[in-house]
Design brief:
It comes from Paenibacillus xanthanilyticus. By secondary structure, this protein is mainly α. The chain is built from 8 helices and no strands. The longest helix is centred in the first third of the chain and has 28 residues.
Length: 167
């Protein structure tokens, strides 16, 4: 009953829109700063490999697969990472602010926050992750006051036409 209210009620949509605008501004602002000023993730990535998240008592690495990923994929492809992070953050923010592909933007916001947390950066990431989760949980109601309100019926019609042609 609560989830239905959260996903369908107009006042829930208003609340989620306010969260969406706040979270979108955070992503847009930080992404644009990185685009404008230049961004180099190599120091961050090297630090995440040199001092991975580990158990306080045993010093055992908690996310060895992620450390392996950083060392063997992200660092050798740091130019790609230097492009994806700033533009990804900027586009996440833009999508959340205008309410276009809201659930996709919230999903990738959560993914980036998880990646930063796995690398050991706590900062504001848990807070931003929680807000993105709330927006994502709201489903289509999260984009009710945005471009998704107009875009979703078009996508549904296109999907219906495609399905009817396949049958």
């Amino acid at each position: 009953m609560v989830m239905r209210w959260f996903r369908e009620n107009i006042w829930a949509a208003v609340a989620v829109t306010l969260l969406r605008l706040y979270l979108g501004w955070q992503w847009l602002h930080h992404g644009w700063e990185k685009v404008k000023d230049g961004f180099d993730a190599s120091g961050f990535l090297k630090g995440a490999v040199a001092k991975p998240v580990s158990n306080y008592a045993t010093q055992e690495v908690i996310y060895p697969n992620y450390t392996y990923f950083i060392e063997h994929f992200a660092l050798p492809n740091v130019k790609l990472i230097n492009f994806l992070i700033p533009w990804g953050e900027f586009l996440i923010g833009l999508g959340l602010i205008v309410g276009a592909f809201t659930l996709v933007a919230a999903f990738f916001a959560m993914m980036l926050n998880f990646l930063f947390l796995f690398a050991g950066t706590v900062s504001s990431n848990p807070w931003l992750l929680l807000l993105a989760f709330v927006i994502f949980t709201a489903g289509a109601n999260a984009g009710r006051f945005g471009v998704d309100h107009y875009l979703q019926p078009l996508l549904n019609r296109s999907r219906t036409k495609r399905t009817s042609r396949e049958n």
